[in-house]
Amino acid sequence: MPSFNVQRYGARGDGRTDSTKSFLTAWSLACRSRARAMVYIPRGTYLVRNLVFWGPCKSHITFKIDGTLVAPSNYWSIGNSGYWILFAKVNRISVSGGTIDARGAGYWSCRKKGGHCPQGARSISFSWCNNVRLSGLTSLNSQNMHVTVHHSSNVRIQNVRIRAPSGSPNTDGIHVQSSSGVTISGGTIATGDDCIALSQGSRNIWIERVNCGPGHGISIGSLGDYVNEEGVQNVTVTSSVFTKTQNGVRIKTWARPSRGFVRNVVFRNLIMRNVDNPVIIDQNYCPNGRGCPRQSSGVKISGVTFANIKGTSTTPIAMKLDCSRSNHCTGIRLQDIRLTYMRRSSASYCRNVHGRRSGVVIPRNCL
């Protein structure tokens, strides 16, 4: 396999020399190779600005990172474009190993002060890509979302480690939108927003063996941003652990008109350890309580199963199913749930929900 080592084109692993052009040169040559090719980043620390790796390429590319990529310390240098490392229109790409550190602390500070800040960069993104493998990567301190998958298909994300402080704003671990056939397995996500967020148009998603926390849990949504919005369907979240998260598994929609939907979703075999809201459907989502639409959510939620979910809630209401008054949730199934609050049974809250329960369900069923 032809290998294109970024050092051959001038990259220096000293953490100070701008190696952006060297990375882009190595990519361009690999992308033109008719044989399967590798872009190789050896050990060392490489300072890079915005990297856009365009396809389509002539063959499969392996992007192997044995070193660490760091963003410039001035957050404006990557924050204006929206992306730090972007793979666009690439088919058959494998990214493995290494660490990327966006050094987002200065940017978060700007955001918290309400100053004049750039929009913020997502650390590593795949847009309009097919047949993607991302494995063994560590992402630290993203300005915005860590990993995004948009308008892509057949994506496998394995054993990634994602870390940012719990107070860092909008630092979703993995964000999926308008994509199908996405598998996320293994790995640890500790961040300031959703560990994983599935936004509009997410279809055929499988999530397993994820350790989430701190963070805001694994969410579908928020949905209902637009009237003509793609739905979310065929999602499974299984065999995962939530530790000290704001939410466990959540579906969230804004209370406004929408033709969106959520259907055929299974949350099963999950452990909650001191989670604020372990099980939640919130169709009156409005995170800061300002400018809430206060209408009725048009997003139709149906066919959602919560099964074999056990652990502890830090609030009395461990299960909150708050559905739209104009589009009641239907086909909600609760099976073998045991959630306690301060070593006692927790409570549940239901509104506009229809479904059934089976097995032992604690908190007491409110369907």
UniProtKB/TrEMBL annotation:
Gene3D superfamilies: Single-stranded right-handed beta-helix, Pectin lyase-like. It is found in: Secreted, Cell wall. Its main location: secreted. Pfam families: Glyco_hydro_28. The active site is at residue 216. PROSITE patterns: POLYGALACTURONASE. One of its GO terms (biological process) is cell wall organization. It comes from the Eukaryota. InterPro entries: Glyco_hydro_28 (IPR000743), PbH1 (IPR006626), Pectin_lyas_fold (IPR012334), Pectin_lyase_fold/virulence (IPR011050). Keywords: Cell wall, Cell wall biogenesis/degradation, Glycosidase, Hydrolase, Secreted. GO terms for molecular function: polygalacturonase activity. Belongs to the glycosyl hydrolase 28 family. This is Polygalacturonase. It comes from Brassica carinata (Ethiopian mustard).
